[in-house]
Amino acid sequence: ALLGSSARADTPDLIRLRTEAIRHFEAGRVEEVLMANVAFAFHPEAAQRAGLVAEYVAMVRRAGAQQLIRQNRAVMAREDLRPTLPSLRSPLLVLCGEADRLTPPEVSEEIAAAVPRARLEIVAGAGHMLTMEQPARVNALLADWLQSLR
After folding, report:
1. Which of 26, 85, 89, 125 has its CB surrounded by the most CB atoms within 10 Å?
2. Reduced to 3 states, what is the DSSP secondary structure of residue 102?
3. CA–CA distance from 141 to each of 16, 77, 108 (Å)?
4. How far apart are CA 47 and CA 132, in angstroms?
5. Is residue 22 a contact partner of residue 77, using CB atoms and an 8 Å limit?
């Protein structure tokens, strides 16, 4: 299963944004980046839920600046994997939040259209953090998909 994923390589603009985020992480300004990212990470309604945002910030802070730096560098180095998608033969569930601004629905649609045994589900009321925003719906979709593999 792929949740909020992309097979695309980062664009030059995204690489610039990630490079700037890395500079902030290195300078100890993790929370500043996280708070600026809330509008991109969450559905607009979920972004207004103070408890959810606090949970998100705490989770990412636990990962720590060095992990955030490694993660961003890995994503920036990712090659375009779209040409390899048609060769995938295993069942695949592709989940995306309807308001995901980091990996928008069209990116998930692109993956699902290219993989022969893919199933696409767009999760209403969710952005990129769909497991935090709509945990019951995401769990139900995962359980249903796993059950269908029997």
Report:
1. 85
2. coil
3. 35, 31, 15
4. 11
5. no
